[in-house]
């Protein structure tokens, strides 16, 4: 008899309640504290309001889902499902994964927390892969093994509009932020696995886009064996028109219509600010 398995992720995947219901996955809203007031992504805190408050200089910090609320969600799901596979944001970017792992030990092996070391559109891809593998009849352990084995089969590059938010979040020094502001340098960051790291700098937005697309093309060809083996992505923070334009550039460059556009999760927006623009790819899993 096949296990009845629930797939759960958090809103750092970009999957909100309406899409989660359509896909057949469950999603945990991620909390934020904005000027001392707690809000939940996709519930009481939408992206437009978040960016408005961020531009106005609000003090915004990320938080973790309540361990009590998460435990209650799991108890409720286990009334219907035999097992839960929970795919939180990367442990390298948040402590929420470790917290979930600790909590899962109280569920007698029926809750499997997978440190897939992904975020944003790549975390979304992992949740959809997991759902497809469950539908194909794989066991919970087999799905977890695949998620672990394929966690690095993805790549993201992000350019930021200003260094101010990186400085505010402690990602760069005040001196570097000041120099970047004066020189109008466009830093390009990367997420290859668990960390948000510096990749390159460019002197203009146009040059930063070229840098990202060149790096992405190299990954597609050298790491993943060509464009036919990947899904392509564009992600942004409150920059939809530019994101759509960049997506078209990618379709032209790679000769593929398989380019998905989405907003970066607010947990990343806390560090990079509004106006960030990113590209990425994930290897197609079978």
TrEMBL record:
The keyword Lipid metabolism does not apply. Keywords: Lipid-binding. Gene3D superfamilies: 3.30.1180.10, 3.40.50.10170. GO terms for molecular function: lipid binding. The keyword NAD does not apply. It holds the Pfam family DegV. InterPro entries: DegV, DegV_C, DegV_domain_contain. This is DegV family protein. It comes from Paraeggerthella hongkongensis.
